[in-house]
Amino acid sequence: MPTQTIWITGASSGIGEALAVRFSRDGARLVLSARRESELERVAERCREAGLEADQVLVLPLDVTDWEGLSGSVQRVLDTFGGIDLLVNNAGVSQRSLCKDTDMSVYQKLMDVDVMGQIALTKAVLPHMLERGTGHLAVTASVAGKVGVPHRTGYCAAKHAVMGFFDALRAEVEDQGIHVSTITPGFIRTDISRNALAGDGKAFGQEDDDIAGGMDVNECAEVIFKGLQAKKREIPVGKGKEMAALWIKRISPNALFRIIRMQNRKS
Ligand code: NAI
């Protein structure tokens, strides 16, 4: 297979970083994006250690909420590598706060980063893929994109929205040679809860038990890597009881609502 150009957002840590390193072992051309250039450089170094040549990794800092800057970023990738085979919209931020304690500015930020940012970058890349008649668009959604849980009203809303967007987009573009994959991780051990927004918009700053007991991030990256290679439409990944919630929600939504209520009382 010819070397693929793969663009990963949220590549400065966690799932995005692990995925970048996994793809590096396979000889890709990689574009690494997030806001912090120094962290992206650190990840780029790991990618080179994993087997990429220096000219196979492009560090491209960006903020997914800066919609106007995104078309310039797309052009930079095209000028550097000539094409984009796979875009993994992985940048994201979570939430840890009850609805009653959450500022509207927090809801706005969750929507801006987790929904509008993914849509904006996807729309900036889509014309290129349509013109070539080939390409692959992916998004790291979440189990929270299918199931509502406490302390994450805004995050669940955002992840449900992004699932809807990419499912609908698939229905529009699949016949034009473009694959769309939605990734639904359960609890994965990353800094997601430390970086999550508290009700006042500050970082939550703590690791919660669910994340601490979650799947190892490299194991998660392996599952996502294989799912993307196979061009799966949905890629669930996780190891805990939260993965069962995906099935229970389909079979008996009421049973799931009761389980979540009981768990919330216990915690
Ligand atoms: P993380 O906090 O380590 O990584 C988030 C990444 O997104 C970082 O690189 C961060 O710099 C980047 N980012 C945040 N805001 C950005 C912005 N405005 N512009 C550009 N980049 C931005 O957490 P993790 O776990 O690696 O999260 C990656 C994705 O996986 C997120 O979309 C998250 O919602 C999703 N996810 C994570 C789960 C978990 O248990 N860790 C479970 C389900 C989904």
From TrEMBL:
Q: Which residues form the Ketoreductase domain?
A: 4-191
**Which family does the record assign?**
Belongs to the short-chain dehydrogenases/reductases (SDR) family.
Name the CDD domains for this protein: 11beta-HSD1_like_SDR_c
| Molecular function as annotated in GO | oxidoreductase activity
**SMART domains xrefs:** PKS_KR
Q: Spell out the protein name for this chain.
A: Short-chain dehydrogenase/reductase SDR
Q: Which PROSITE patterns does its entry note? A: ADH_SHORT
Q: Which Gene Ontology cellular-component terms appear in the entry?
A: membrane
* Keywords, comma-separated and alphabetical: Oxidoreductase
